[in-house]
Design goal:
Blueprint (H helix, E strand, L loop, with lengths): L1 E5 L1 H10 L1 E6 L7 H20 L3 H13 L8 E7 L5 H7 L6 E5 L1 H10 L3 E4 L4 H24 L5 H19 L13 E7 L8 E5 L4 E8 L9 E6 L5 H14 L6 E4 L8
Parallel strand pairs: 9-10
Antiparallel strand pairs: 1-4, 2-3, 2-8, 3-6, 4-9, 5-6, 7-8
Helix pairs in contact: 2-3, 2-6, 6-7
Length: 272
């Protein structure tokens, strides 16, 4: 089972609209996430350029490094989940002071909804060596395409670079949402990821926070073929847990949502 951490406002939205928001990665809470992936791949390219005497490879990595900032214009959406449903750092980091709720999704019921909307469900990668290995494969594939196109004369050097850059951007946009700093490994995070989504997609929307409009993909969690995959709610550390549990039961009944377990968080309220 996977969990998503949210406030009561998010829980009400899921129950009533059967949707969640998959946010464009540049707008996620931790702005350092995207920069972390960029730094790792930029360092790899720099090392490779310095370690080779092959002129074509040097030119490729130099040009790719210069074009790397363009990846910021690529839309990749991510819906964050965790394998841990009752973690103190999550309650502190993602819920309001008055309390929050951990929503448990049954994984085998969640996957069909994600697949129908072209999302991949993947675990976040925290180990630095594993991150480098993923990015090495992406760089190898892009360089191989560049060489193949130029050596077979299917394209001139500029055209070959544009084609290989496009492939790199596509592959990188699928990986960048799941590369996280090792300091966050405790969270055991998973993400539902959609790459290269158009801003004109009919499921793209916006929510306005205190300072800006935040674009997101409205990910549907119910269809005629597959039920809403909610299975458990953990009521977070708060002053009136019993009342909160009773209120949830009434909400589920009114909204005709199949019942699942509701339980209290094991984290003492005073620790928050």
């Amino acid at each position: 089972m996977l969990y998503h951490y949210t406030s009561i406002a998010g829980l009400k939205g899921i129950v009533q609209t059967r949707r969640v928001w998959a946010t464009i990665v540049h707008y996620l809470n931790d702005a350092k996430e995207f920069r972390h992936a960029m730094d790792v791949v930029r360092n790899l390219m720099s090392q490779r350029r310095d370690d080779t005497t092959d002129r074509a490879s040097i030119d490729f990595y130099t040009n790719l490094g210069e074009s790397l900032p363009q990846i910021r214009g690529v839309n990749a959406c991510a819906f964050s989940l965790s394998a841990k449903g009752d973690l103190l750092s999550q309650w502190r980091g993602y819920c309001p002071p008055e309390g929050g709720y951990s929503i448990g999704f049954q994984t085998d019921l969640l996957r069909p909804h994600l697949q129908r909307q072209n999302f991949d469900l993947v675990p976040c990668v925290y180990d630095h060596s594993a991150q480098q290995n993923l990015l090495r494969v992406i760089l190898d594939d892009a360089l191989s395409k560049f060489r193949r196109l130029t050596e077979t004369k299917q394209a001139d050097q500029e055209q070959a670079f544009e084609a290989s850059q496009e492939q790199f951007f596509f592959d990188f946009s699928r990986v960048v949402p799941v590369l996280k700093d090792p300091a966050f490994a405790e969270e055991g995070e998973w993400r539902a990821v959609l790459s290269l989504v158009s801003s004109r997609h009919p499921q793209m929307g916006y929510r306005v926070n205190k300072s800006m409009a935040v674009p997101h993909f409205e990910l549907e969690l119910e269809s005629k073929e597959h039920p809403l995959p909610l299975r458990e709610i953990v009521v977070g550390p708060m002053q009136y847990q019993e009342l909160a549990m009773n209120g949830l039961s009434s909400l589920f009944e009114r909204e005709h949502v199949s019942y699942w377990s509701i339980r209290r968080s094991l984290i003492p309220y005073r620790l928050l």
